[in-house]
Amino acid sequence: MGNSVITRSAVDSAAIAGVENVRFGMVVRSVGKAGLLATPLTAYFFLWAPILLLVLFSFNDSRAVDMWRGFTLRWYTNIFSGVMGTEARFSTELMMQALSNTLLVGLVSTLIATTLGTMIALSLARSNLPGKRIIDGLMFLPVVIPEITQGVSLAIFFKIVFDFLDSSTGMRAAPGFGTIIIGHVAFNISYVAIVVRARLANMNPRLEEAANDLGANTWQTFRRITLPLIMPGIVAGGLLALTLSMDDLVITFFNAGVGTTTLPMFVYGLIKTAVTPEVNALSTLMLVFSTIVVGVSLMLQNRYTERPYTRQ
Amino acid sequence: MAARVTTRSEHKAGGILLALPALLWLGLFFLLPLIIVLIISLMSRGSGGSAVLPFTFDQYTRVFDTFWIVLQRSILVALLTTAICLVAGYPLAYFITRRKTAFGRQFALFLVILPFWTNFLIRTYAWRVILGREGLVNNALLNAGLITEPLTLLNTEFAVVLGLVYGFLPFMVLPIYASLSRFDHRYIEAANDLGANDVTSFWRIMLPLTMPGVIAGCILVFIPAIGTFVTSDLLGGTRGLMIGNLIQNQYSGNGNMPLGAALSVVMMMVVVVALLFYARFGEEKK
After folding, report:
1. What's the angle, vertex CA B114, arms to CA B109 and CA B115, rounded to 5?
2. Residue B230 included in any domain
3. Is B162:B235 a contact under the CB 8 Å cutoff?
4. Which of residues 73-92 of A touch B (CB under 8 A)?
5. Closest to A101 measured CA to CA, from A254, A263, A255
């Protein structure tokens, strides 16, 4: 008797729990649905609002980041006619100098990194190097080690080498373009090699074998078959290297010398000391520039993406 | 047969020659400096902050003693950044994969990536404009009469986390998106048919199957967040001082090179632990 009562109430409470469960499930579902829509929309807003605000305020006719007080281009003209921060070192002339330094470093380091990166990618993909796994690991390190560690360790290395040169041969060396370029190449080799290797992995090795069988020597095969086929990878890797070099602050910061300020270093000094409408205008110009670079590289990649000869 | 063998050995010699310049460059200008840092971290501080003998563990004692609070803050800020990126990034990646057309998916993805391609400094600067004492938020709140004194939003840990989430959210979204776009949504239907509710089918089916993307995303956010220097310098001030800023301080003015080296080594160790975690749990199971 007592037994059946217990069973009865157990069944009842189970049924109630079941209904509760369904109800709970429905609540969860509607909350979840709303959350699934609200979170992405908030995230998009979060990603875009700061950039758009910066652009908006670069055209606002007011020194304060406040209300909209009318459209003006004077912050833009100010950039090109004088001082844009609160200090004299942020002059138009020095900015242009920094820009040309950035381009010089970017082009030279990209050229070296693309050549060396492509070479090691070919070697890793096409021959049985001893210690290949270790080399693979080494290639990934510059991508994952924090920039600040790379920048600092390279700066210490150069200091030791320069001190040694000074004490042993009396040769005076100082950080400058050379040290910046060496640092940029050191991290960019890996990025280029990773991009080019991905392309090589997609390529059908039979094409090279066929060229060999038809009497082409190693150089001819490379020049006429391999190189044209991996060219999109090399171009993509080179563009990535150029972008990374031109945007790099941390490694440059630790290895630059007097008179080798790059644009990111200039901008860093500027935004650290001042929030002015001129800086907003300069930022907008840089945003437009990087959007154009991204657009062009996407177009280039699209043009090269038809892959009639890739491995199925 | 003989011809084949010659080609092989030629390939090998050629392969080494091709790899040599890059290996030398990386060995000399990447690996060797890291080894030097390791050695210097075990040395004593000389005049002007230089490194001198004898060898000592003093620098490491100081890192875990005097600077423990900064190290702890860096790890906490990096973990918090990773957690926020995950909670915001997963639904965002899901939203992108659920667009109906290929164009819709590409466009939704493009909207995440484009801000990410713009200069990092500029994106960080934008937050200074928004959070500053005379920034957008304070001005708006003052004008609305909601506050009488400007709030301290800039130069706080809050601003650092905000800036880091803003900077690295795409690193979380992209790998999760890659995992989710390989996920077969019919599994969810099957689970629902078998009586699982949405929460259960998410926890038991979708999350485990997209775990490689989640872990890759967490590593990709955590590593740059622990190594932050620019974001914390521009948004954190002294209250948001991170280990990266501490390292930089050791190389300017009256610095301490061995201490800076020891801090770098500790930071690298944290990164290595994160990478080992990834190697253990993050790789796709075949």
Report:
1. 120
2. yes
3. yes
4. none
5. A263
- State whether residue A111 sits within 8 Å of chain B by CB: no
ipTM for this prediction: 0.83
Strands (E), B110-165: none
For chains A and B, what is the number of CB pairs under 8 angstroms? 244
Amino acid (1-letter code) at residue B195: G
| Residues in chain A within 8 Å Cβ distance of B92 | 39-40, 43-44
What residues in A contact B132, CB-CB < 8 Å?
65, 275
- pTM score of the predicted model: 0.82
- Which whole-number Å values give the CA distances from B181 to A74, A96, A251, B224, B277, in the listed order? 47, 45, 36, 25, 24
Question: Residue B285 to residues A50, B210, B213, B281: CA-CA distances in angstroms?
Answer: 40, 12, 12, 9
Do residue B33 and residue A272 have CB atoms under 8 angstroms apart? no
Instruction: Say if CB B246 and CB B70 are below 8 A apart.
Output: yes
In a domain, B247, yes or no: yes
**B136: containing domain:** 67-281
Count of the separate structural domains present in chain B: 1
A14 reaches B (C-beta below 8 A)? no
Best residue of A127, A134, A150, A221 to probe chain B, by most B CBs closer than 10 Å = A127
Q: Is B11 a member of any domain?
A: no
Q: How many CB atoms lie within 10 A of CB B192?
A: 14
CA distance A257 to chain B (A): 14
Phi, psi of A60 (to 5 degrees): -85, 135
User: Tens of pLDDT along A157-172?
Assistant: 998 888 888 888 877 8
Strands (E), chain B: 44-45, 51-52
State the CATH number of the domain containing residue B204: 1.10.3720.10
Residue A7 confidence (pLDDT): 53
Q: Which residues contact A304 (CB under 8 A, 6 or more apart)?
A: A231, A232, A235
